[in-house]
Amino acid sequence: MAAPIKVVVTGAAGQIAYSLLYQIASGAVFGPDQPVYLHLLDIAPMMGVLEGVVMELADCALPLLTGVLPTANPEEAFKDVAAAFLVGAMPRREGMERKDLLSANVRIFKEQGQALDKVAKKDVKVLVVGNPANTNALICSKYAPSIPKENFTAMTRLDQNRAQSQLAVKLGIPVQDVKNVIIWGNHSSTQFPDASNAIAKINGVEKPVPAAINDDEYLKTSFVTTVQKRGAAVIAARKMSSALSAAKAASDHMRDWFLGSGDRWVSMGVVSDGSYGTPRDVVFSFPVTIKNGKWKIVEGLTISDFARQMLDNTGKELVEEKQDALDVCKD
């Protein structure tokens, strides 16, 4: 057995964490031979609830779980962690705009960046789930200057999973038979779910998704809007935001980052180097491949006029969000 790694989950008493903790502790994320020591961070008023979560983790009798530390202190929570799931954020409620979320959450991620900088491992892999995820990841990275920028990512895997599932249903094939659908840009309603390079396996034969679906109008309209608005649709139905699917996506993201993405492209919000004419120094979702714990943006894709417009639009929103966030940090 390998030595245990320390893994922190913030917002650990919340809905997403409730589904996520089992996946991490069961071996679904870091592999069946990797023991984990869980650090659970939440705010002081949630410590009672967190105690119940700790009891449940004990009652799962998971062989890979070597210990659990519940805490309200960020420096305790982030000490020596190799992986960080930053889930805790003020949740978006029905009718709430992202701008409202921004000012509340930027302060949280500034504080967490400072704590990571001070006590986490320098090669810690940080996944920001709490919204607005892209900009929160950027701020977190800014306040953790001793940790490489590429170690901060934002989750767009939920959008990718949503998009993949929509295409599979449309084609009447299993979800795993669709690959390389891309989410570009922000995890917001400006994101661009792009099926133009996606591949579907139909009756054992791989085909480009656009040819298999043969409905360009659908791929530019209802496919895009369904994925963009899926989070709001879940809130409207459930009266709470996505939790089970968000936890699954966080597991997928971190598993691929640690163990590799194989022959598939995965979407991750990463600090932009200007690839594909995107604004630099914002956290932008790109298609990436991952090997040996390092992600790399997929190069050489053709960007249609329609895609160009979509990329520019989501890029513009990210530049504005970044400015708003930096203004909040100055206060």
Automatic annotation (TrEMBL):
- UniProt cross-references to PROSITE patterns, sorted A to Z: MDH
Q: Which residues form the Lactate/malate dehydrogenase C-terminal domain?
A: 156-326
Name the reaction it catalyses.
(S)-malate + NAD(+) = oxaloacetate + NADH + H(+)
A Gene Ontology molecular function term for this protein is: L-malate dehydrogenase (NAD+) activity
For this protein, the record's Pfam families field holds: Ldh_1_C (PF02866), Ldh_1_N (PF00056)
Database matches in NCBIfam families:
MalateDH-SF1, MDH_euk_cyt, PRK05442.1
Record-stated family: Belongs to the LDH/MDH superfamily. MDH type 2 family.
Instruction: Provide the Lactate/malate dehydrogenase N-terminal domain boundaries.
Output: 5-152
Q: Which UniProt keywords apply?
A: NAD, Oxidoreductase, Tricarboxylic acid cycle
Q: Note the InterPro entries from the entry.
A: L-lactate/malate_DH, Lactate/malate_DH_C, Lactate/malate_DH_N, Malate_DH_AS, Malate_DH_NAD-dep_euk, Malate_DH_type2
Q: What is this protein called?
A: Malate dehydrogenase
A biological process (GO) annotation for this entry? malate metabolic process
Organism the protein comes from: Parnassius apollo (Apollo butterfly)
Enzyme Commission code(s) on record: 1.1.1.37
Write out the coiled-coil annotation as residue ranges.
none
